[in-house]
Known about the structure:
It is a multi-pass membrane protein. By secondary structure, the protein is an all-alpha fold.
Amino acid sequence: MSTEVRTLRAGGFGTGGLWAAGRFLGSLLLSFALILVIWWLFLLAFPDIGPIIGRTPVDVFDYLFVDADAPAARAEIFGNLWITLQDAAIGFVAGMLAAIATAAIFVVSRSAAQTFMPIAMLLRSVPLVAMTPLITVIVGRGVAVVAVMGGIVVFFPALVMIMTGLSNAPRQITDVISVYGGGRWTALRRSAIPSAVPSLFGAAKVSVPGALIGATVAEWLGTNKGLGASLQRALPAAAYDELWASVLVITVASIVIYAVVGVIETVVLSQMGMQHN
């Protein structure tokens, strides 16, 4: 291997990749600041919500880090957050694996896509909350219900994005594989999947908040653990400090995980020589 090639590969991430990662993280910080501003303006616009019910970002910060009971509050909320993150990870992995496998089958077999895609979209139109009792009866309360509900939220948007990426594989490469005797699965493995890496990361980023939503709903209605169950208990108990703090913590967690996926995407696409949008 020549020195020039080594240099190009070693510097694949380089200044451009660092600049792209920095812009991405900066936009996320700006989005978070905007969320806090909208939160504050919302409470100012609807004064009837507070101060009994409403809590400002400063109130939440005091509840978690300043008040006398802050250590106990942090232990409770972050303990529940860890459970929710584990549940979200289960749903995320289940949904993404199912979406990748289904998208591959649909791209290889157009008849399968034409037959089952309308059914999938029809099922997606049913509200998750309405399906929860049936899902709980079928799979029980535990890891299975978390995987199913989180997987459902993740599966459908990821399926559409991954199918789009797989379908947009370079036609020239596919033709070359076909000329040399390769079948559809070979073209999928050699051409479609590598070219669909940006779509895979796009699906992953979209699925991160979806997985957290699915986990929270599953905990609220199924497992009675984690932040979902904490929110369920806080409402009737009028524990508004805990309620607002839980919402903020899960929002921050969603942004942080989204940022991690985005940075990994920037690194991988830079190493593969693909443009990061």
